[in-house]
Design brief:
The chain has 7 helices and 2 strands; from the N terminus they run H-H-H-H-E-E-H-H-H. With about 140 residues, the chain is mainly α. The protein is elongated, with a radius of gyration of 29 Å. It starts with a helix and ends in a 13-residue tail after the last helix.
Length: about 140
């Protein structure tokens, strides 16, 4: 009985605090609905099942923001299937969402050769590397 009383008292205190806010404009029915919602929430929190978080659904189906064809339509950027925004390279964007390139490909059913870097960006990086001499074997020094 004391647990029920404590739940009612807590729900009442939360409702009073909500009404004490000067920005709250509520009708009588709003107050009753809020009080009931607070009581239900506190009751759920008291049950032992609520204390353990539910495991995330690993089989969740993700809807891509754009189609695969549209994501690769421009040579200047790749459009992310997560948010539909263009990026020259997706690696940092994916890291911000806690994904690896392989996880991203698997999430959206992409082929293993789906690019993570836009073609023009890749070409410009390649040209820069060639100009500074990356990838060449060092010349043999000739002794005279």
């Amino acid at each position: 009985m004391t647990e029920m009383t404590n739940t009612i008292e807590l729900a009442t205190e939360l409702t009073v605090a909500w009404l004490g806010n000067t920005n709250t404009r509520a009708t009588t029915s709003d107050v009753l609905a809020f009080l009931q919602a607070m009581h239900d929430t506190l009751t759920k929190l008291e049950t032992p099942d609520a204390a353990t978080p539910e495991p995330a659904d690993e089989t969740q189906d993700y809807t891509p923001a754009v189609s695969v064809r549209k994501s690769l339509a421009s040579p200047d950027y790749i459009i992310s299937m997560i948010d539909g925004k263009p990026y020259r390279t997706l690696r940092r964007h994916l890291t911000g969402h806690g994904l690896t390139p392989d996880e991203y490909r698997q999430r959206y059913g992409l082929k293993a050769d789906y690019p993570m870097v836009a073609p023009t960006y890749s070409e410009s990086r390649r040209a820069m590397a060639k100009t500074i001499g990356l990838g060449r074997k060092p010349r043999a020094t000739t002794k005279a």
